[in-house]
Amino acid sequence: MELRKYIGRRLVQVVIIFFVILTVLFLLFRLAPGDPVSRMVDPDMTPEDAHRLKVELGLDKPLGIQYLVYLKNFFTGHFGYSFHYGEPVVNIIWSRLPNTVLLFTTSIILSALVGVFLGKIASWHKGKKTDSILTIGALVTHTLFLPWLALIMIWLFSYKFGWFPITGMISEDVWLDPDSGFIAKSLDVMYHMVLPLSTLFLIHFGAYLLIMRSSMLETLKEDYILTARAKGLEEKVIRDHHAAPNAALPVVTSVGLSLAFSINGGALTETVFTWPGIGRELVFSVSQNDYPLAQASFLLIAAVVLVSNVVVDVLYAYLDPRIRY
């Protein structure tokens, strides 16, 4: 019963927070300098034509009326049409979302697996040369400025050596070729993923390594580890089957939250590599004052992050009843 009450309170909090986000997003885009019509119309168009376009977009109505229409559209699942593309916002988001999920989910899972493995090794060799190398390497890569690293990767491996494409997700000659099958197209996407995936991996794996190392060091002090050693178990067995599974809990939580935040597509990464995902569309829509597309993108990110936080909180409450406040 206590757990149900805790979940109920968290759900109420999430609904309130989401409604606040909904309202703040509406106000931010309306109060920002500039308007979408000034970016859409031809300079040769008359003021009458520009006014007519504002009326069609509903931007001539008072802010309060726009807000009510905004809420109605949200609760009916209609996010409007993109000012720039002229297409339903839902169609644009669903066409970009798989690209973001593919790139960032792959990078997070790969970073977590490598980070956990190396963090386990670093903690087991605490104070030794192996620990120092891994820890320093993790700190250096984790603190790198992502756009700078991305540009270095492009300059070195695309421009200098010519090993990988500079930008984009696909090769037109492959995808327009009627003889290209599923395998050929999949390999082409993977080929374009190498540089952005490597960049994200280098940035993120260090965090998982440091979290796992710290958690392992704490776990190795527990009494059941001393008991396992007293029983004469091999050190490898103690490390891999007793300490590591318990120490990995904070990493699992971090991965869960990272997967949630990855829905924004890492706007900088997608912009630098011209990866057609949610993050790139978010940057473009904000710069063009494309209200419907920007609002829907932000709301998608907010919803996923809030739900993920609730899931993590509930899992923690289930595992540790002490936090059911």
Please, could you describe this protein's structure?
With 325 residues, the protein is an all-alpha fold. The protein has two domains: 2-75; 98-287, MetI-like fold (Orthogonal Bundle), CATH 1.10.3720.10. It has helices spanning 2-31, 36-40, 47-57, 63-75, 89-124, 129-142, 146-160, 172-175, 182-219, 223-230, 235-247, 249-261, 267-272, 278-287, 291-319. It is built from 15 helices and no strands.
List the helices and strands and how they pair.
Layout: H1 2-31, H2 36-40, H3 47-57, H4 63-75, H5 89-124, H6 129-142, H7 146-160, H8 172-175, H9 182-219, H10 223-230, H11 235-247, H12 249-261, H13 267-272, H14 278-287, H15 291-319
How many independent structural domains?
Answer: 2
**Distance from first to last alpha carbon:** 13 Å
Backbone structural class: mainly alpha
Shape: globular
Rg from Cα: 25 Å
Strand segment count: 0
Overall CATH architecture of the largest domain: Orthogonal Bundle
Low-confidence stretches: none
What is the CATH T-level topology of the largest domain?
MetI-like fold
Give the CATH superfamily of the largest domain: MetI-like
Question: According to CATH, what is the class of the largest domain?
Answer: Mainly Alpha
Average the pLDDT over all residues and give the rounded result: 77
Q: What percentage of the residues does DSSP assign to strands (E)?
A: under 5%
SSE order, one letter for each helix or strand:
HHHHHHHHHHHHHHH
